Amino acid sequence: MASPAQPSVTDALATLAAACPSSPPAAALKALCRASLEASVRAALAAVLPHALAMAVEAPADHPALLYVWRLLRNAAAGCEDNQLALATALASSPLLHPNHLTALLAPPASPACAVAYLQLLVNVVSANEAAAAVLFDPALPVLSAVVASEAARAVDGLIGLVPLFVVRAAVAVPDLLPQSEPWLALVLELVAQLDTEDSLLFTNVVHLVELAADAGVLGAWLAAAKTASPDSAMELLKILDGLVHRAESEGGDVTAFTPLPLAETIMDDLVGDINAMLMPLAAGAPTAGSGSDSDDDDGLTGRIAVNRDVQDSAMALLRLRLRILGMVLGGAEPVLRDAAGSRGLVAGVTMLLKAVHAAQSHTVQARRARNGPDHDGSGIPDGLLAEVMRLVANAAFESPANQDEVRETDGMMVILDCCKLDERNPYLREWALMAVRNLTIDNTANQEVIAELETRGIAPGTDLDSLGIDAEIDEHGKLRVSRRK
Predict the structure, then answer these.
(1) Which residue range or ranges hold the Ataxin-10 domain (predicted)?
(2) Which residues in 160-190 are b (16+ Cβ under 10 Å) and which e?
């Protein structure tokens, strides 16, 4: 029973139907908003939706009852298919979808809550309704783009996060609606570029959108567009993908679920390009990996393998993201994915990168240990990079004779064997190196012979044994003898 202070739902419907659009009755609308939380009432609202839409168009932006108009429309669309389609059809040709209308809702003295209810209405209209989503999706693009570009919208908590939610709900209803055209891609990339804000709703919904894109096979196109149009967005997309794959790995799920072959090949090609960009300076007269140069200049292997440190931080971050993603994916991949890694030049590239990074770190550690102590190598190589490269090599070699041979022919075996030791800068390097040795030698006689032909020659230079007061030598029988210095 309605309270004495409020009209009944029936009275409110009648009042609303007869109301002048420029002066909507606040009491009637407030009662309807409360009542419309019930599904039976939402179904009865169909007859008055045109009146509510007219009020939304004609009422001044600062009208005290306007918020109830938007909330009534929002509630009417929630899970009511007939209302959803009716509203989608009406909104598609309505001035309510013009960006100027949104601007008016965001400008004082209008209430920001009106803008929130407005976008919530759009989300509700397309949710789980294929017909409504198909009708409203493209007409909504201008106003959604206006929201994302608006400084005023960024100041309204949760408002921009409703934009990717609209796209997600529409794409769930109609998968073919996932953004692929240039205007929609521009909107998606702008949303991704804004992920540095503290808007948790925006982050959650963008992540869900990227999941849908990966599952539908369009994430590769998004990454390709981001590379040229918005490098920051490319970085954020890869971070999200990295997180999704890592979550699948930690939960024992399918790590390849988010990286179908075309997307994996795109990331492989990009990583090969990253590696070539890093290794190109090696051709400019630098000692190659394993050359044994002991020069103590800052222009040695450090400057040639690592990047231009001033301008390439983002390039290094992208390279590491791609390394991590593919390192995880190849660990659970079908043979066709590992075959692609070999045929696209990735295995040769990461083996060269492995050699170069190892040489850069080894060179600078030996050259500077006396001056800086064992905790400073000065190479400019980020901690963990060597282990990430090793992981990819190990997983790419698993049950892949072609990749096993590629690593050997690129002279990677000795470097991998040299990494079978603890390295405080590269957690799990030893474990991944041992895994690489295992995967490289399974059913591969040539690789087994490389290891079998090794001879003991002495203690490797540059160890920390001296600082620990330990002497080590190889006796006449080829045995290692270790003793503490007295």
Answers:
(1) 388-482
(2) bbbbbbbbbbbbbbbeebbbeeeebbbbbbb
Answer yes or no: is pLDDT of 17 > 60: no
pLDDT for 465 equals 64
Class level of CATH domain 264-454 = mainly alpha
SS (H, E, C) 372-437: HCCCCCCCCCCCCHHHHHHHHHHHHHCCCHHHHHHHHHCCCHHHHHHCCCCCCCCCCHHHHHHHHH
CA distance 19 to 245: 55
pLDDT at position 376 over 90: no
Q: What is the mean pLDDT of the chain?
A: 84
Residue with tokens 């890592």: 246
Is the pLDDT assigned to residue 25 strictly greater than 70? no
Q: Is the pLDDT of residue 49 over 70?
A: yes
Looking at residue 2, what is its pLDDT?
A: 42
Looking from the CA of 160 toward its CB, the CA atoms found within 13 Å total: 27
Which token pair is 73?
A: 């429309």
Which pLDDT band, with edges at 50, 70 and 90, does 482 fall under?
confident
User: How does residue 203 score in pLDDT terms, banded at 50, 70 and 90?
Assistant: very high
pLDDT of 167 above 70: yes
pLDDT per position as a tens digit, 233-243: 999 999 999 99
